[in-house]
Amino acid sequence: MGYYLQVEANISLYVEDINPGSSKAILFLHGWPANHQMFEYQFNRLAQMGFRCIGWDQRGFGKSDKPWGGYDYDRIADDLRAVIDTLHLQNLTLAGHSTGGAIAIRYMARHGGFGVSKLVLLSAAAPSVIQRPYFPYGLKKEEVLNIIKGTLNDRPNMLRGFGDMFFFQHVTQAFSDWFFQLGQQAASWSTAAIANTWLYEEQLFHDLGKINVPTLILHGVHDQVCHFPLAEAQRQGIKNSKLVPFQNGGHGLFWEERDQVNNEIAHFIG
Fold first, then answer.
1. How far is CA 4 from CA 75, 87, 93, 180, 185, in A?
2. Which residues pair with 122 in a beta bridge?
């Protein structure tokens, strides 16, 4: 079932809650620039396996409200806390893809992991999306600047190009069109604002060490968006973490390696 939760006076977020009767809840955080629908292939299978699957559209994306501001990791982590509080979630597994994984990490550090007993990072955009003098493994700054420029001048073309680098395995034209329209549902200003934070604000080196729950890291070795060394840095920085490399996966593990991803999550939660 789907419903809206109010997180600020004039801002509501859309939540999809599947199999709410289960006591084993997984809260999914989508990546940029998509929305909760990207986890369709997790919701179908994991709910069938007895899990409660909760997806929410972050502010500015999907069916949620699209304010002009509030697109930093702290604010979105606070939105996440509001969702967890409102739904009275406990012993939760938090699962984040790409930027959603980065926000999950910030939540764990900023809110002490309130309500969360396990963490799953899928192709997570951490500890830094871009290359830095002390971290040469991310995207080049110019690549992100081109994404922002494309967003503000020809967003459909930018989304097509981003989709082309998203998947390592072949996708059908129909699937490509479906994935493209997920990005189209976002506001242009929120799409650009999140990308802009990658350049100047958001890095999570210090956040990693504040995570104190068992953590499963799933990452494709052919990821062209969040390169595989990011996953190795997550593994080194997070205590009690396990890294599972996907030899035939890119950034779109949630679809490309959906069966193994679902099985790894189910086994991890137990």
1. 18, 11, 21, 24, 17
2. 97, 218
Phi and psi of 130, rounded to 5°? Answer: -105, 160
Provide the CB-side half-sphere exposure for 205 (13 A, CA): 6
Structure tokens at 29: 């955080």
Both tokens of 14, joined, read 């859309």
Asked if residue 185 lies in contact with residue 62, where contact means CB atoms within 8 angstroms, the answer is yes
Residues 250, 164, 13, CA angle at the centre, nearest 5°?
80
What does 90-136 look like in DSSP terms, one character per residue? Answer: -SEEEEEETHHHHHHHHHHHHSTTTTEEEEEEES---S-SB-BTTBT
Q: Which residues are catalytic?
A: 98, 223, 251
Residue-wise pLDDT tens digits, 192-235 = 999 999 987 789 999 999 999 999 999 999 999 999 999 999 99
Residues 6 or more apart whose Cβ sits within 8 Å of residue 142: none
Half-sphere exposure of 62 (CA within 13 A, CB side): 26
Q: Per-domain residue ranges for the chain?
A: 2-269
User: What is the amino acid identity at position 174?
Assistant: A
pTM value surpassing 0.85: yes
In CATH, what number does 2-269 get?
A: 3.40.50.1820
